[in-house]
Amino acid sequence: MLAIQFFFVILISMSITFSDIEQARKRIAPVVYRTPVLQSINERDKGEATFFFKCENLQRSGAFKLRGAYNKIAALPEAVRQKGVVAFSSGNHARAVATAARLLGTHAKIVMPNDAPEVKLQATRAVGAEIVLYDRYRESREAIAQSICETERRTLVPPFDDPLIIAGQGTIGLELHEQMPEFDLLVAPIGGGGLISGVATALAELRPEVQIFGAEAEAANDTFLSLQKGERVQIPVPKTIADGMQVTSPGKLTFPIIQQRVKEIILVSEHEIVEGMRFVAEHIRQIIEPTPAVAVAAARKLATRFPGARIAVILSGGNVDMKRYRELLTGKGM
Amino acid sequence: MLAIQFFFVILISMSITFSDIEQARKRIAPVVYRTPVLQSINERDKGEATFFFKCENLQRSGAFKLRGAYNKIAALPEAVRQKGVVAFSSGNHARAVATAARLLGTHAKIVMPNDAPEVKLQATRAVGAEIVLYDRYRESREAIAQSICETERRTLVPPFDDPLIIAGQGTIGLELHEQMPEFDLLVAPIGGGGLISGVATALAELRPEVQIFGAEAEAANDTFLSLQKGERVQIPVPKTIADGMQVTSPGKLTFPIIQQRVKEIILVSEHEIVEGMRFVAEHIRQIIEPTPAVAVAAARKLATRFPGARIAVILSGGNVDMKRYRELLTGKGM
Fold first, then answer.
1. Which residue among A42, A58, A288 places its CB closest to the CB of B284?
2. Rounded to a whole number, what is the distance in Å from the CA of A293 to chain B's nearest CA?
3. How far apart are CA B220 and CA A37, in angstroms?
4. For chain B, what percent of residues have pLDDT higher than 70?
5. For chain A, what are the domain ranges?
């Protein structure tokens, strides 16, 4: 009997439903921005694909990550929340957890790699979080975070592999449905897969006709390889300018959703990532970080495969410092 | 009798009413973007001013100018419109007139200074306009444009001093009213004054409590000096990085509106303009050209004078090429 109960608990915690995303939206609505969808300022030639950019680089905290983090922390019972939270992250999730913790009146400790961009470290400290640095190539951030949780009875806020995190990111799908006329394709960058699995779940309900594409840097092709093999593959920590993709494997929860709902993964080169950042500057005057530029580069490839298509692209974040941004665009930072 | 009739025609053509702006909106609605109002992605300290940025850098053609240009050309009788239009402009108005002409199925000739940013020349040609270059420091663009109009029976689309142009720009005021919660101050950059006089006319009707501030570069202080003296003052062609402010005098129509509705002109240095561009990159991830950064710099000064104020800032355009943008932010382009 206990075994059956346990089995059901597992089942429930594994599946993300449309209703989870609707609940997430109610939870996050008071603080999270409804980011705009932008179209090019330039005139389009006949027959060219049309791009629609969902600008999560304009999200509070500078990335979509606030949606999931706030949803997770807001859902904790008050007494649990008051003991504080812990997160490990390459940057945007860290800042999001720190921001959500502050907005919800609690405290965050963040385990961050010692080579994270300075702008992300600063921004995380600026919202009152405490940072614990570690060596990305030698230490396990999961182990460090776990130990802090046990010692201080804090709650871990995982970067992607959690139903409440995925549901939070999925709220982007609800907004897209309201903001967009008909569209044919959606492209999202894949780190751990929280963003794309949440959005795909929302769109499966609201826009089942839309084909979902994932985008990965060639060096960070863990999800691409996993789909090929039909099971989660582990790769070494990828070296790519897309620092949000320094994930070695898709998540336990996100991978089956990706298997079910994502049509194909498009791989792009480091050079194409930089070209994607430049394209966004020229067409919609946005500053984005390298990770969403992976999706932009993928969308441009899809535009040649599907002439005239209406393509929604999720610009996941904009947290790049201006010095680094300038270097990347001049080709010095690669 | 004829004299009286003439007097009335002058009176009517001089005054811009709220209803002109409402009509403009109907005319431009099918093509002009409703640009978003953005707030900072960063958390704000208690008591700090809040900025709201109206992002006309995301307007079709890259600047607010499309509103006025399209309104003017769309209002022409079909037979007149078909003969084509002419404009003289330092850049954004040129591109706007070219774009509006194309969208309305007619043809534009643009008289542009030979030192206009390359990105603006290219962008104007790309939408099918013919460019006539002139020397900004020695020739009269008005005379050149006038001569083309007479020879080819084309219609002149003035950059600011025209009721239909002012009414078009004023549509930003209608959108601000719909998009904004209560706000206290509005800051707009002043070139010839078309933008601020249109928006001030709209807000006088919809939000009479809002105080309107103009922003000029120290070197381009023609409106500041004119207000001091109580009449339109002519200055030499100003040398400033804010190329949209290379105007030597406020307009005949715009100046009385500015006298009546603008509380004060804030002057800012070239260095503060660059700091304004950087501020916008850090807080709302937008790429803007130098001219709107004059308004950003002015708004930051107002923020210290009015702690806790809610300040709307019009980001008038984003047409700066990326090489120039990088140079400006590294201090090389000043």
1. A58
2. 14
3. 35
4. 95
5. 2-63+162-329, 65-156
